[in-house]
Design a protein that fits this description.
The complex is a heterodimer of chains A (112) and B (118). Chain A has 112 residues and is mainly beta. Chain A is built from no helices and eleven strands. Chain A is elongated, with a radius of gyration of 14 Å. Chain B has no helices and eleven strands. The chains are: A mainly beta (112), B mainly beta (118).
Chain lengths: 112, 118
């Protein structure tokens, strides 16, 4: 299985800060990574797909980048509603064999 | 508006069974593969199972080991997850998710808690 190592596991930040979360895949996954936001007691919400495409309705302060094995999610100008946990998910598929999709361990963004 | 409304779940003893249901609305259900994903406090998010648009193809995570069955009824816009031979480590919130593209989860159900305990 492809392992997704997400860092940091938690961080403290202030409103207005620029926040960067990283995800590293155990093998190249091209641009097949998605990012989700989850608030306590709620289901995850899709933010970014295919490494850098912004899901409809998601504020433009969220952005994603990277390819191959190293990826980042950036929040430019943290807002109060952005305090949540963020997960990456690899969506690599192969025509030759089954590739279980896997998630990163999550990054909890807390108020400083 | 897309909605995935889940039901089922609850407390069950080890070795017991449960059936989870997820009824969809707001999109053409039969055109999309559906999955179940679970979230336990220790293990984070884990993919559990996938069912194709017709229901003719299914796929499972290794840890399922033949204990779970995913199915769908396109006439009822509903996907199911039958959980058998449940273990304590299956305790988690289970989400049904709509798959868009390959595989991107654009909509999630509200989640249902399954607790396996004696």
């Amino acid at each position: 299985d492809i392992q997704m190592t997400q860092s940091p596991s938690s961080l403290s930040a202030s409103v207005g800060d620029r926040v960067t979360i990283t995800c590293r895949a155990s093998q190249s996954i091209s641009y097949y990574i998605n990012w989700y936001q989850q608030k306590p007691g709620k289901a995850p919400k899709l933010l970014i797909y295919a490494a850098s495409s912004l899901q409809s309705g998601v504020p433009s302060r969220f952005s994603g980048s990277g390819s191959g094995t190293d990826f980042t999610l950036t929040i430019s100008g943290l807002q109060p509603e952005d305090f949540a946990t963020y997960f990456c998910q690899q969506s690599y598929t192969s025509p030759l064999y089954s590739v279980p999709l896997t998630f990163g361990g999550g990054t909890k963004v807390e108020i400083k | 508006e897309v909605q995935l409304l889940q039901s089922g779940g609850g407390l069950v003893q080890p070795g017991g069974s449960l059936r989870l249901s997820c009824t969809a609305s707001g999109f053409t259900f039969s055109s999309y593969a559906m999955r179940w994903v679970r979230q336990a406090p220790v293990k984070g998010l884990e993919w559990v199972a996938t069912v194709s648009t017709s229901g003719g193809r299914t796929d499972y995570a290794d840890f399922v080991e033949g204990r779970f069955t995913i199915s769908r009824d396109n006439s009822k816009n509903t996907v199911y997850l039958q959980l058998n031979s449940l273990r304590a480590e299956d305790t988690a919130v289970y989400y049904c998710v709509k798959e868009w593209g390959g595989p991107i989860f654009d909509y999630w159900g509200q989640g249902t808690l399954v607790t396996v305990s004696s």
